[in-house]
Amino acid sequence: MIATGTRCDTSAFKGAGQPHVFTLHSLADAERLRTFLRDKQPRRAVVVGAAYIGLEAADALRRNGLSVTVLERSANVLLRDDARLTAAVRKVLEDHRVELRCGVTVSSIEPDRVADVPCDLVVVSCGLKPNVEIATEAGVTAGRTGAIATDDRMETNVRGIYAAGDCAEAMHLVTGRPAYIPLGTSANKAGRVAGANAAGGRERFPGIVGTSIVGVFHVGFAMTGLSVEQARAAGFSPVSARIEARSRAKYFDGKKTTVELVADRATGRLLGGTVVGEDGAAGRTNVIATALHARMKVEDFEQLDLAYAPPFSTVWDPVLIAAQQLIKEL
Ligand SMILES: Cc1cc2nc3c(=O)[nH]c(=O)nc-3n(C[C@H](O)[C@H](O)[C@H](O)COP(=O)(O)OP(=O)(O)OC[C@H]3O[C@@H](n4cnc5c(N)ncnc54)[C@H](O)[C@@H]3O)c2cc1C
Hints:
Layout: E1 6-8, E2 21-23, H1 27-40, E3 44-48, H2 52-63, E4 67-72, H3 83-95, E5 98-102, E6 113-114, E7 117-118, E8 121-124, E9 128-130, H4 133-137, E10 170-171, E11 178-179, H5 184-198, E12 212-216, E13 219-225, H6 228-233, E14 238-246, E15 256-264, E16 270-277, H7 281-293, H8 298-301, H9 318-329
Parallel strand pairs: 2-8, 3-4, 3-8, 4-5
Antiparallel strand pairs: 1-9, 6-7, 10-11, 12-13, 13-16, 14-15, 15-16
């Protein structure tokens, strides 16, 4: 049973070994960073990579009083080809005076700067690589993503060798293809299945839909399934709708909630969604994720009987309002 996880590979960065450069993978990494913050009192931080750990690090460093710049190679954040989501994250960062620069490829880290940004501390939060070496040595093959390929019993191509968690792929239930989305949620589930089967059981791990959430300051950014661009790349003909609503009744301090849903024009099947807001983003995304598992069509999703009372929701839940809008688009 191989469960070797990932590592943060900083070999692409010249100067990554300097004492003011950190990764955030283990508890020891976190303790080293905290000691540095206490002893050296840095004032300016650069975070390399705007996936969820980078954004959480930017949030924490800013709350600790540092000025923070986030540098991201791609045009978008959170490893999701989604310009609207990026714009929403950027707005929250800017509200807290954190600068986000996309389209910046970092290749070297200088003692006092990264790219042209002066800094005393650097957090590298990119370059995640699955630890597949012992598997490869044992004759286990990796999939196209570079992580270990398994069947739905989490058994590799070598009989009697199982793999799960951050070192392994999982089936993406929307695209129907293996994906590499390393998260604790799926690592736990796939690990149980692999362990049970290694001990003689017959369990299956059907797969994932790529559900995740990150808190950036006071706002939750949650996503599941595919963005419009990801859906297009996967061969669907996506159509989307985006709405703004309140998380609960106005007189119960309802917060602005943005929901975007994506569906396939040809079949009406729901393909993905994002929910952004201070209140209830996880629960609403989980409703969408459940619909993705059930391969629901938008017209069926719109009829879901969801809970309502003014302190908790609105009579039309924001995800249902988004579904109504998406039906019009379809
Ligand atoms: C800062 C941070 C925040 C996160 N937050 C979230 C979150 O909010 N939600 C979420 O779903 N996920 C989150 N994750 C991801 C989650 O932690 C991982 O998906 C999960 O830990 C993966 O479990 P795993 O057992 O596959 O790998 P790991 O937890 O990485 O464990 C692998 C273990 O194998 C060991 N190992 C590696 N190679 C060998 C070898 N050759 N021999 C022996 N041992 C070896 C490693 O040292 C490690 O202890 C976060 C991760 C990080 C780093």
